[in-house]
Amino acid sequence: MRGRRIAALILIAVIGPVLPACTVAPGGRTGVYQCADWADFSDPALAFESADAVVVGTPAASTSTVPMMGVDAAVHEVAVRVVLKGEVEDGGTIEVASTPETCSDGGLYPSGDPLDTDAELLLYLTTPSTFGIRATLTPGEDTVRPAPPEDTLVSDAGGA
Description:
Elements: H1 2-15, H2 44-50, E1 53-59, E2 64-68, E3 71-85, E4 93-97, E5 121-125, E6 134-135, E7 144-146
Parallel strand pairs: 4-6
Antiparallel strand pairs: 1-3, 1-5, 2-3, 3-4, 5-7
């Protein structure tokens, strides 16, 4: 009897953490997806230091998606005006996945896709994924900000 109880506890300890990820994903999809705890990048200097690339640019409407954390993240082409950090070409375009909020009640983008705008933005980005595109460091406003005034932009200064 004691052996069964121990085996049951071990089984619960092993399977328990996996169960929340094997339910209904945002958008009604079933399967395995990942819930993420996001770092706090409310300090622009920390976001700048943590990003692989930081650019000022204007996104276009999403025309495709890419699998990210088990869901389909919106991909936007961003016309880059200024590169503040990283290996990105000034004046070119890059593809950027808008990192989704997984495990929220409001879908992938409860407050709306932050890249779904025609406004110029300051973007803190990751390196290209296996799909060859970058992504925002986190969902939301900490790593997708309105572009600052031109005279405040300083390349590789740690806090644009």
